[in-house]
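Changelog-linked ticket: beta-D-galactopyranose example.
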Amino acid sequence: MDFPLITSCSCRSTVLRILLFLSLHLPVFALTGAIPQQEARRISLNSGWRFQRSTSTPDNLSYSKLKQWILPSANNFIVDSTKHARRPADQPDNVTISQPSFDDSSWEKLNLPHDWAVKGPFYTASNAVIGGGMGRLPIQGVGWYRRNFSANTADKAKSVYLDIDGAMSYAMVWLNGNLVGGWPYGYASFRLDLTPYLSVGDNTLAIRLDNTVDSSRFYPGAGIYRNVWLTKVSTTHVGQTGTWISCKQVSNQSATLDLVVQVENAANGGVRAEVDVTTDVHIFDSGTGKAGEKVAQFPSAAVALEAGKRQSVNSSVTVQKPRLWGPRPAQEPNLYIAITRLRIGGQVIDTFETRFGIRSLQYGNDGLRINGQRVYLQGVNQHHDLGSLGAAFSIEAAERQLSMLQDMGCNAVRTSHNPPAPELLDLADQMGVLILNEIFDTWKSQKVRNDFHLIFNDWYEADLRAFLRRDRNHPSVVIWSYGNEVAEQGGGKSGADTAQRLEDIVREEDPTRQTTVGMNSASADSAFSSVVDLIGLNYQGEGRTGSTGSFPSFRSKFPNKMIFSTESASAISTRGTYLFPVTNGSSSAVKDGQGGDSKAMYVSAYELYAVDWGASADKVFVSQDRASYVAGEFVWTGWDYLGEPTPYNSARSSYFGIIDLAGFPKDRFYLYQSRWNPTVRTAHILPHWNWPDRVGQVTPVHVFSSGDEAELFLNGVSQGRQKKDQSTYRFRWDKVTYQPGELQVTTYKAGAIWANATVRTTGQATQLKLSTYRERTVIRADGSDLSFISVAVTDDKGNVVPQASGTITFSIQGPGTIVATDNGDPTDMAPFPSKDRKAFAGLALAIVRANADTTGTITVKATSTGLQAAELILEIA
Ligand code: GAL
């Protein structure tokens, strides 16, 4: 076996996952990824914005008109300085909306993160301007954001930067009427230097965004949908890309850390700076969210910097008996924090903190090893939207997504197909989730007419380097992907050349990790497949329904490369919806009468159906088990997402998720849990057992279990005992004749009883039941914390009535807001902020936020005609 040993470490994170649940009373920083010292460098600019959107061009501006002023924002990320864009000497023509004197008092008041499209309404026409692919939500148009902030004379002597974690898209920023710069790619995080335009007193920021139709294959979101920061530092400071810590010779006994600190002297007026650089390494104390015991100190360095220059300072140190970072559940995600101090004349002038982890990575021809232990990739793809919250980032929503995936046994996420919010990586670091970090869905050739291909040539280098420098400290990031199903796969030499250019950039910025591209059509013999380090295959590896797949051909061409599925399955289903007849096979392409109902736009939840380029989970498992060298998979997808409602384009959201858009697990969840998390005593029966129209008809019953044998009983009568063989992943009784009553399954493992499950024909719906995610009934009044409240329609005995679909009305008393409601039904066109939401398969969800700076309690009430209402009290902490 050939295992090139490659190690790496890394960055910003907060408290360990467990603390997220136990620490409901912790100060805000514990959940937000911010930490006190770092906070002193940067303050949140999320509150107090004015906003206006227009579907016409209200200002006669466009990216192409102002491009000369925008391109220089990329210069720090373009290595060849002869290619740097020169900023025109003058400002562009006066832009009224950017002027401090402009009256925005009639504009909407709001706080960030903000997605202007998510409130809807959904476009329902078949020829809508934004169709199913992009989620039928009004992302298009020009959005302006304005807010003031004040600066004092001390600030005027500093460097002042605006850090935007993500703005969709074509951002352009003015300060006090001066165009500062911008960044077109809506998924990028970027920094702009406000210093030259800063005034003592009031300052007016104005940000213009512009979203075109046909700019994405899925829902992109719209607006400043991630956090925004104002960073104020001494003119000599740790630069934007901060520090880079990598590790080598990692073992339980010791590890060597290599540190690069980027020091910048941005002083105007030619002041040379003599700077001492020191960095201490501490254990990151998960109990307090602060630096704990100091374990090492990098040798200090002195650097003399002329004004306007930046320089990297390198040093190394060995840590004894390191507490290694690794993915859960096999390992522990231990973190460290490095505290870098810059001193001039003995005075500390800047302090910069880097949270990181120590671990080794080996990419072998039989899989991925972390700290020497093989970790099979049990991964999922995730788009960046958070369902009914849209693209507006919420750390609570992201944590809910990751932790439900972890419960299923998922240990890895591919950020399909673009850079995630920085806090998503902080969560992954602290929760022990592996990340395949991906940047592009298109290169030079378009997938849709207004996508990234329009700006690829101007921006690919800056976007790629900025992404790598931002994220390379995170220990959770184990693979870089610089593309997904790009058309260049089939482009012969020229496609391979583009790939090589991107590959070279990754190598320059991070020699410690390997790369991939999701390849759906490149063959093993193509020039393209030879460029990437790791063979990442979309569907072709395991093969679509009825085919054997291309794992063997890639294996024989690349016997020493790691091979895995960057996308697998693309199975589709609608939670709680079972259609008959049920296919006899283990995987079928969906069509009417075969798992699909194009009129109702539902796909059967028997979990045997897929798109015709994909396959069911069961079929994928067979292929993987036959190719034991395969390193694992990233299922398409973990959660449903907005847009791409294949196979029914008139719907609003996807059918691919293992978990639906509202966060309710589909049956498939238990199929994956049975395989991925086999120590959980899973036994899950499908379908539900309320079929008044099917009495006497054949109604197949399937069971997902981590047991190896199972016996099913209908009203106490055995339907047979079955054993799983090597290529079956479910128990199926396909000849059960429906009669109301009780289905009960007993599963066994190695002959002993393992897990039981029961499904009953329920009585009439009589009442509503409310519950909170993880039974968390405390909410912080920080203006961002969210409570996820589920409502179930039940009978007298508390059984969820599986076909209940009546309208539920949510209301609230106390200082809170119902931000969104949902039910996971991809065809439901009620706007997300609606307080009325139909139950879908017996369930619905309301998301509640406490108003900032309030105390007391919030009472959430759910009512529905003819049903007993329910109330739940949230305590504001
Ligand atoms: C893939 C693509 C994904 C998604 C998926 C749906 O080809 O990479 O973005 O579209 O198909 O099956």
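Closing comment: Example verified and attached. The pocket of beta-D-galactopyranose is lined by residues 416, 484-485, 518, 520, 538, 567, 570, 611, 614, 636, 644 (CB under 6 Å). Residues 47-226 form a domain with the Jelly Rolls fold (CATH 2.60.120.260).
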